[in-house]
Amino acid sequence: ICEYDKKPYVQFIDSWKTSNILPSLQEIKKHFSSSGEFYVRAYDEKHD
To answer: How many domains does the chain contain in total?
Structure first.
């Protein structure tokens, strides 16, 4: 995924399956470099 600045980004998409949950913030920090920026967005059934 590339934003307006053309930098590549990784997006995790919640599949709504209990067997395939999103990684925790600690797991993300462990996997990616400390200079990475993360934005967590959560939507419930009232949002598109």
So the answer is: 1
